[in-house]
Predict the 3D structure of the following.
Amino acid sequence: MNFFEVINSRHSVRNFSEKDVEEEKIKKILEAAQKAPSWQNRQPWYFIVVKDKELIKKISEFRPLTLNINIFLKKAPVIIILVSKRELSGSRAGLDYFLVDCAIAMEHLILAATALGLGTCWIGAFDEEYLKEILKIPKDFRIIALTPLGYPKKENLLGKAIKTFAQSKKRKELKDFVFLNEWGKKWEL
Ligand SMILES: Cc1cc2nc3c(=O)[nH]c(=O)nc-3n(C[C@H](O)[C@H](O)[C@H](O)COP(=O)(O)O)c2cc1C
């Protein structure tokens, strides 16, 4: 796949085959994250690669009184957790860059996974305290995101429902978010 084929074929995958992911491939996608740019090259990210089946089950589990749409994580052979904290990167006018740095690294990882035929899904809805506890993450760190990683399987009903709810296939037109030279000046590309 060339770069644009990777960009165009990436989509959130919510159903996985039981096939294990080769360690060489996991290493490759982590190396893609390693290459990401960051504020003053601070590289404020940590990745926890979870392969332990019991832990994966725990991560995906419902917590009492918590809505868990991410139950599909249970079938993923690998889950990758992105961890950081504000102090590891810079800030400007109240804008904390650790989130930016981490998001770039995560997207590098996600695109590398796509290029290797693997599926991912950025997960932002989770019970952070619960995950920190089971993964033994120090209290002063934050979990930024997680993603399952595995070989994609045909989309199931849950995946279809989430895609419909999130209107995942829709994208704004360029004319609705690109301005030419100044704010509000439309550019009809
Ligand atoms: C910050 C962020 C948080 C997200 N959280 C979740 C989530 O908790 N569960 C989920 O199934 N998808 C989640 N998604 C995936 C989005 O729903 C998905 O990227 C969007 O609908 C576009 O679909 P696509 O990724 O298939 O192109 C999240 C994506 C982002 C970027």
